[in-house]
Fold this sequence. Notes:
The complex is a heterodimer.
Chain A: E1 3-5, E2 10-14, E3 19-21, E4 24-26, E5 32-38, E6 45-49, E7 60-61, E8 72-74, E9 83-90, H1 92-95, E10 100-101, E11 105-110
Parallel strand pairs in A: 2-11
Antiparallel strand pairs in A: 1-4, 3-8, 5-6, 5-9, 7-8, 9-10, 9-11
Chain B: E1 5-7, E2 10-13, E3 19-24, E4 31-37, E5 44-50, E6 53-56, E7 65-68, E8 75-79, E9 88-95, E10 105-106, E11 110-114
Parallel strand pairs in B: 2-11
Antiparallel strand pairs in B: 1-3, 3-8, 4-5, 4-9, 5-6, 7-8, 9-10, 9-11
Amino acid sequence: AQRVTQPEKLLSVFKGAPVELKCNYSYSGSPELFWYVQYSRQRLQLLLRHISRESIKGFTADLNKGETSFHLKKPFAQEEDSAMYYCALSAWETSGSRLTFGEGTQLTVNP
Amino acid sequence: GAGVSQTPSNKVTEKGKYVELRCDPISGHTALYWYRQSLGQGPEFLIYFQGTGAADDSGLPNDRFFAVRPEGSVSTLKIQRTERGDSAVYLCASSLKPGVNQPQHFGDGTRLSIL
């Protein structure tokens, strides 16, 4: 079965500093990886997905199959980036469209 | 347009009672998902509908949980003989169609508290 691990429950950085939210996964096939974000008092929303190779709000994430990681990075954090971030995996070959989520990392960007 | 709508937003009930949670997906979305999120955890998959049929119900924890989507739009998650361990936020998501290229759009969730 697939699994997603986010080793940091809490992460605190200062505005303008680089930020990296870690995500590791276990799955023997070819996964699809996603980052979801939940801002305070808002619903969970898709931030980015590796298949699109996009940068959203300055965030990027690269799938590293050798290290089975999909870390989320931003070179200069902003206060509005403070939110809960979830890494998620879709194992299409075995589990279809269902998402397997990590436990989440609460990011706080201090002024 | 409206996003995924879930009602009620909060539900408090006593152990042993029956509850129904409703999800109204984005119009035209054929795929509908239910997840459960316990405190301090990420969402956990419960069940997925494609149209009216449950394509994957392997995440339902036991036979007290059941979900329907009779007309391929609104879905209801039903929990019988509720237990305190059922307390969680129940999230619904929909996508235009199934597939990893189809982003899942989430509702605000129903916070269920079993006393």
